[in-house]
């Protein structure tokens, strides 16, 4: 558990987008900081073994082993499943001084935490059932050598393919993609500014961090789009953009992502899709730094700019033509 200090959440969606993906009651609690009536929540009396997740983004929050009956009317836990899954914020509404708890991935309101817990932690996380999902024990066990896909769960992949404005635009159109955020990864400077990255001395590449639902779109399909909208054979260059910040790279978070990336590159090589060798880096993910606000959703906010019309628009149209089956219904 950590205190929110101008926290940049991994998943950032508009109110309208949240309304489309959440039920009315979930939206009221998770996004409007509402509270369900006591003793009405579906998980209040749940005794099944498993993990409790954020109903909005699938972030795993609590183990059933941490759940206890506090007789307060809402599901209660004495600890989060892993440090950093939850952030806190001082809440002085309703004439009370309390500590709000939120999902660290999407900022969804969960409830409050109190220091009157009966176990050695001394904590009582008081949580709304509507803000939670539940994964029964064994649901995420390995199946046929790969992790089972749980509907509503999420995964994160960080990709570098030249200018992040282009990559962000095409991934925003794919079904199952919850967010595509422009930023910087792969370097040695913390919290770099755009002007620092542009000088090529930070080691960072322009990247897009993609949060997606694996039950709707696979990492393999994401990589197919990625390799279609940039040239992975030019070292530290994309078109007129030159420098290490424009390199092609896949930053993996686990062995499964690493294997998928390497298998995809091997397949493209076998099939001789490109005349020249692929130089895309496959490297461990270390950190992601969100780019300045004016870089986010750049194409949609600057459609009339020459770069958008001459560089981004053709890539967008290519994806819409080649990957029709992967597009969101409202993409065009």
What does this protein structure show overall?
The protein has eight helices and 20 strands. By secondary structure, the protein is of the alpha+beta class. The strands form five sheets. A seven-stranded mixed sheet has the order 1-6-7-8-9-5-4, with no helix packed on it. A six-stranded mixed sheet has the order 19-18-13-15-14-20, covered by helices on one side. A three-stranded antiparallel sheet has the order 3-2-10, with no helix packed on it. Helix 3 (164-171) packs parallel to helix 8 (306-322) and helix 5 packs across helix 6 (255-270). Residues 140-149 have low confidence and may be disordered.
What's the short story on this structure?
The protein has eight helices and 20 strands.
Alpha-carbon distance between the two ends: 41 Å
Strands of the biggest beta sheet: in what spatial order?
Answer: 1-6-7-8-9-5-4
Structural class: alpha+beta
The CATH architecture assignment of the largest domain turns out to be 2-Layer Sandwich
CATH topology of the largest domain: Peptide Methionine Sulfoxide Reductase, Chain A
CATH superfamily of the largest domain: Peptide methionine sulphoxide reductase MsrA
**Percent of residues in beta strands:** 25-35%
Name of the CATH class of the largest domain: Alpha Beta
> Radius of gyration, rounded?
22 Å
- Per DSSP E runs of 2 or more residues, the count of β-strands stands at 20
**So what's the overall shape?**
elongated
Order of helices and strands: EHHEEEEEEEEEEEEHEHEHEEEHEEHH
Look at the structure and give the mean pLDDT.
Answer: 89
